[in-house]
Amino acid sequence: MKNVAIHRLENELLSVGIKSIGAELCSITNNLTGTEHIWQGDPAFWESHAPNLFPIIGALKNDTYIFEGNTFHMPKHGFFRNNEAVILKSKASDRLAFSLKYSNDTLKVYPFKFEVEISFTLKGKSLAVKHQVFNLDTKEIYFSIGGHPAFNAPLFPGETYEDCYLEFDQKMDLETAVLSKDGLITNVSETVLQDENKIHLKKDLFDNDALIFQNIPSKKVSLNSKHTGKILSLDYSDFENLGIWAKPNAPYVCIEPWLGIADLEDTDQNFKTKKGINKLMPTQSFHATYTIEIA
User: Fold this and answer.
1) What is the SS3 string spanning the chain?
2) d(CA 277, CA 146)
3) What are the chain's domains?
């Protein structure tokens, strides 16, 4: 992989870094305290920071889907992440926008003409991450899109992972879809919350992979410390699903807003009817934003 340029946004409160490859958010530093909030990609656990997911989320059955009788192959989470063809489209003092357009390479695995723009807007202690999809084709295009930001937890000396918890903005009943060994959605679910709004982090929470909440009623969650209070919050009002994940025993947590989901275990692999797929008509555009706010 070639050298990675890091583009930056900064105000008096926060410094933000975004990698050129895959337009991946790689740093949110509190300028007042020097605290880094984004997981720094220790390869002993997980090398990424906050990959952008397009045009699928999670795994396809056998990494394969079918569109209009033709078979295509695509790895987990699609081809936007780690993509060196992503360009910096525009730059302002408070906003960076990155773009990926279809190419001969993408058409081999994804038979649609598209442009995806990911933009980052810094305002005060908030960073808005906007996803836009443009249909440049003469037919409908089908896609999933989402984020995968990983946040350091715990943050301060003397604190443990178990001192951290996620708090939703409302009490609710939540069930997680259980994943197969291949990362597919099974017809089994497990209860995570019952008229509650807090998920306490613990080292074995993700032993069976991610927690996946479909059609989640709450649209805002905060990462908190028992000792120091709120660390940050994430508003994902434009997103239907939420994933929560970390590698077992790793000192971070991913809070993942998704429009889409992994394949069902019993899928027929038809891309048009894939669960959670989004459809966009020719000449139309789509947008969805999540916002990270540092406490």
Assistant:
1) CCCCCEEEEECCCEEEEEECHHHEEEEEEECCCCCECECCCCCCCCCCCCCEEECCCCCCHHHEEEECCEEEECCCCECCCCCCCCEEEEECCCEEEEEEECCHHHHHHCCCCEEEEEEEEEECCEEEEEEEEEECCCCCEEECEEECCEEECCCCCCCCHHHEEEEEEEEEEEEEEEECCCCCEEEEEEEEEEEEEEEECCCCCCCCCCEEECCCCCCEEEEEECCCEEEEEEECCCCCEEEEECCCCCCEEEEEEEECCCCECCCCCEHHHCCCCEEECCCCEEEEEEEEEEC
2) 12
3) 6-294 (2.70.98.10)
Give tens-digit pLDDT for 21-69: 999 999 999 999 999 999 999 999 999 999 999 999 999 999 999 999 9
User: Tens digit of pLDDT for each residue in 207-265?
Assistant: 999 999 999 999 999 999 999 999 999 999 999 999 999 998 999 999 999 999 999 99
**Contact of 274 with 244, CB cutoff 8 Å:** no
Round to whole Å and give the CA distance between 213 and 177. Answer: 7
- What's CA 161's distance to the chain center, in Å? 21
Using alpha carbons only, what angle is made at residue 23 by residues 21 and 28, rounded to the nearest 5 degrees?
Answer: 115
Confidence of residue 2 (pLDDT cuts 50, 70, 90): low
Give the pLDDT mean for 172-186. Answer: 96
Which pLDDT does position 86 carry in this prediction? 98
